[in-house]
Amino acid sequence: MPDLAATFEQNAIDAAATVWRIERSPLAVRSAIERAAEGLKGIVMSEAEFLAPQILAGARGLAGIILKPDDEQLTTAGVGVTEAFAGIASTGSVCVSLGRPLVGATSLLMPLNIVLLASERIVERPRDLFHPECLKGEALKRNLIVITGPSATADMGPLVRGVHGPHRLLILLLE
Amino acid sequence: MAEPYTKPAAVEAPRDVANKADKGRLLRAIRMALEIESPAVRRNTQEFNRGRYVATAAIPDYDALKDRARAIKDKSIAQLPDLIQTLKKSVRARGGHVFVASTAEDACRYILDVCHWRAAKLVVKGKTITSEEIHLNSVLEKDGIEVAESDLAEFILQVANEQPSHFVGPALHYSRERITALFKRKFKTDLPLDTGEALTRFAREKLRDKFLYADVGITGANLIAADTGTIMLVESEGNIRMSSFLPPVHIAISGVEKIIPTREEMAPFVEILPPSATGQALAVYTSFISPPLTDPVFLLPGKPSKEREFHLVLVDNGRMKMREDPVLKEALDCIRCGACLNSCANFQTVGGHAFGGEAYSGGIGGSWEAGTGKLENARFSEMCTGCSRCVNQCPVRIDIPWLNENLADRMNRIEERAPIHHVAARFIGAAENDRSSSVAKLFFGNYHYFAKWGARIASLAYRFGGEKLARVASLCDSTGRAKPMRLALEQWVGLDRRRTLPIFPKNTLTHAVKRTAPGLVKPKAPKAVLFADVFTNYGMAHRGVAAANLLRALGADLVVSDCFPEGRAALSQGMIATAKNHARRATAELDRYIGEGRDIVVVEPSSLAMFRRDMKHLLDSKDRFERFRSRAFDPIEYVIKILEKTGRKPVDVFDASHSSVGKKLYLHTHCQQKTIGADAPTEKLLREIGFDVVTSKVECCGMAGSFGYTTDYYDLSMAVGADLINHIIQQERTGGQRTLVASGTSCTEQLHAGFERQVMHPVELLYSILKR
Lengths: 175, 772
Prior knowledge:
The complex is a heterodimer.
Chain A lengths: L3 H11 L3 E5 L3 H11 L6 E3 L7 H5 L13 H6 L2 E5 L2 E3 L4 E5 L5 H4 L5 E7 L3 E2 L20 E4 L4 E2 L6 E2 L6 E7 L1
Parallel strand pairs in A: 1-11, 2-3, 3-6, 4-7, 6-11
Antiparallel strand pairs in A: 4-5, 5-8, 9-10
Chain B lengths: L22 H35 L4 H17 L1 H14 L3 E5 L2 H14 L4 E4 L3 H5 L2 H7 L3 E4 L2 H9 L15 H12 L8 H18 L2 E4 L3 E3 L5 E5 L3 H7 L3 E7 L3 E2 L6 H11 L7 E5 L19 E7 L3 H6 L14 H4 L2 H6 L11 H11 L27 H13 L6 H9 L11 H7 L1 H27 L9 H11 L15 H5 L13 E6 L1 H5 L2 H13 L3 E7 L4 H5 L3 H20 L3 E4 L2 H8 L9 H8 L2 E2 L1 H11 L4 H4 L10 E5 L2 H5 L4 H10 L2 E4 L18 H22 L3 E4 L2 H11 L3 E2 L1 H7 L4
Parallel strand pairs in B: 1-10, 2-3, 2-4, 4-7, 5-8, 7-10, 11-12, 11-13, 13-14, 15-16, 15-17, 17-18
Antiparallel strand pairs in B: 5-6, 6-9
Helix pairs in contact in B: 1-11, 2-11, 15-16, 23-34, 32-33
C-alpha cells in the first residue's frame, strides 16, 4: 500500500503548493492559519463539512477573521480558508465541494487559499473520484473543483503563478 | 548544389488570411508566420511537446486509458441523438435551460436573446473555441454588448484583433516582447511591462472588475455528462471558475460532440487531457459542476440583485452531418488537447495562423473547418504531410493523416479539368476518381511511372555518355545545362528548382541485384523477400543492394521482388482510389512470397509504414491487412530477427572498429519509422555494436516525401529542417564531425541539402563492418 500522504505531499509541492503537516487539533489549525496569514488583511473561512466543527473553532477567534463577510469584503480579503472534500496523491491536488457557504469564494477570490485536508480523504488517482465506491460515491454527486497548485499562466511568456485565482495555495494536511 | 535559403518577405495581419479557401491566402499566411510568428510558436509548441512526452510516460496504463476514452467517445457519437435528449432532461430537472442550435446563427441569436432578457451590458468570457467558430463576439458587440475575454491569451488576441492560433494556447505565437509592445501601443501606457509578472498583473487588474460586474459569464465545456448535466471545465488561470461563479447568468457553449453518457465516464479523460495538452498531470483547476449552482449570486454595491440562471447552448453547425460522414465522423472524437498540433513539425514552425483556418488549426483542424463550414476552408490541411507523428500522440487515437488524405481526395475533385487532362491522367495510371487532380499531384502521386521512364533514359545515357549525360537525363545537373527543364518542371508540376534531384542509378535495384550472388543460407535463418519499393529502386538502389547483400551474408534465404508502387506516393497526394489500386497490386504480387513462408523486408520507411499502418484503409479486409502488417520488417529489425533465430550476438557479427567512417554517428530516423516503432531497434543495435550515436530529436526533417520538393512549400520545408540541421551543427561543434545516418530517402535528401556530404543508410554501414 503506497504512503498516500507522502506521495500527495511531494506532488503538491511539485505543483507549487505549500504543504504543512499538522496535528488534527483546534490549536494546531489556529496557529498554522495565524502563521500563514501574518501580514495579510482579512481572513474568511468557509464552513466545515467533513472535519469536526471544533477543529476550526479555534481559528474563528483569530484577529483579522471576518465571520460574516459581505461580498465586497470577499473581494478585498487576503486569505480564504477552505476545507477539502478530498486529496489526490498522484497529482498533489485538493478537491473542494461547492454548495456550503463561502467554499466557492474562499477557494477562488483571495490571494492566499489555505485548504484543510484530512489525510484519510486522500485517494490515489484522479479517476478514483469517479468510482461509485470511493468516498461513498459522494464525488459523483457534488459540484467539485479539483485544485492543483496556485492559479498560473504561460500566456504572457514565462510561467507566472498567480493570475485570476489564488496566487498561493497552502495545504494543511491534518494527520 | 542547393541555392542558399533566403527568408521570405511579405507580411499580413492574421485575420486577413484566416479564411484559406484560396491557395494564395494560404501561401501568404505561411510567409507571414515564417516572418513574424515562427520563433514563439516553435518555442511554445516544443515545450508543450516535451512536457507531454514526460507526463504521458508517467501514467502507468496510458494506452489502456486511451483505448477506454476512445471507446467512450465512439459510443457517445453513436448514441448522440439519445444523449442530447437525456441531457436536456437532466439540465432542466436542475432548473437550467438547454438550447440545441442547428447553425452558428441560431446559437448566436439565442445567446443574444438571453442577454436581452437579462438586460446584459457586460459579458465576461472564458476560453471557448466553439464561440470562435460561431463568431459570437462580433454578434454581441454589434448589439452594443461589451465582451471581455478573460483568458489571458484570448485577452491578448482581443486587444490585437487576431484569431486563435492554437486550441490550448490561443496566443502562443506571441513572445513576451511582442505582448509588451502590443499592450504599450494599444493601452498607451508608460508602465515598463517587461516581465511576464508585470504583464499578468496589468491584465488581471483590467479584468478583475469585469468579473465582478459582469451580467453574463460565458464558458465552453470540455465534456458534458448526459446523466447528470455535469460539465467538465479545465483551466489554469481561474477565469473560467470566475465566469461560471460570479455573474448571475452562466451560459455554457459546447459542440454536441462533447456529450458523453455518464459522469463516471469522465474518469479516463481527466487523466489523459491535461498531460496531452500542457504536459501537466492535472491542470490547476478542473471543475465538475452541474449548473445552475446553488451558491447565492455575488452582490456588490450598486449591482442589482438577480437570480442565478444557467443556459447550455449545444451547437450542431454541421456536426450531425459529420456524424453521418464515414471519415469525418472520427474528428468528432477530438478532445481539443492540441497534442497533434504540438507534435507536428510544420505546425511547430508556423503555428495555426498559417496551418489553420478561422477557428480550428493544425492537423485535426481541417476536418473541423470542413465539417462546420466549407470543404475549401480546409485547404490548409494540405500542410499535413502524412508524417504521422501525431497518430501516437492523440489521446483518443484519431488517425489524423487519414482524415487529411480524405480532405485532399475530396478537394482534388473540386476543380473542372479539360478532357485532355483526364486522358493524360488515365495514361499514367491514375484511377478514374483521381483524374481531376492537379498536374502536380498526378506527377507526384504517380512518381513510379516517371521514375521508370527516367531510369530507362538515364540507363541509356550512362551507356552512351557516362555519368555526366546521366545527370542531364536525371535533370539534376549542377552545371546549369538542365536548367530549362527544371524551370519547365517548376512551372508544370511545382517541383522547386532549388532542390537537387537525386541522379537515377546506373542500375535499378531489381537490375543490380540480379548480378549479386544469392549467398549461403544458414540453417534456421528466416526466408524473406526484399520489396523493391519505388524510392529505393529508382532513387537509392545502392541501399537496396546493401540490404540484400547484408541479409544474405547473415544467412537469410532472400529474394528480391519486382518494383511496383505500394500506394505511398498516391496517398500522399490524396489520390485514394489510385493508392488503393497500388496497394492491392503490390500485395497481390507479394502474396506468393508470403505463401512461400517469406517475410517482407522494406528499405524505405514510408513504404514500410504503408504495410504496417496505412494499408488498413486501403485493403479489402482487416485480415488481409494483418497478413501483410505482421510480416513486414525494416531491414535492421530483420537483421536482429536473423541474429536471434541463429543464436548470434551483434558483436560477434559486426566490428565497429572496422568502420571506414569512424564510430561517431548522427542518426536521424524517419518520422513514419518512429510512428510504427521501427526506429528504436536501429539505435539500439548501433550502440550495442559500439558506435557512439547521437540521435535527432525533431519530429520530422521537413522534407516529408514530395512536400519539401514543391515550390509552394520549399521555404517551409527548409525552415522545418533548420532544427535538424542546427542540432547537427551544434553536436559537431562540440564533439567533432559525425557520419550522418538516415533510413528515409527524403530525409537523406534534406540532410544532403544541408551538408552536401554522404548520408548512409544503416544497412550500408552494417554491411561495411560485417566480420567476414
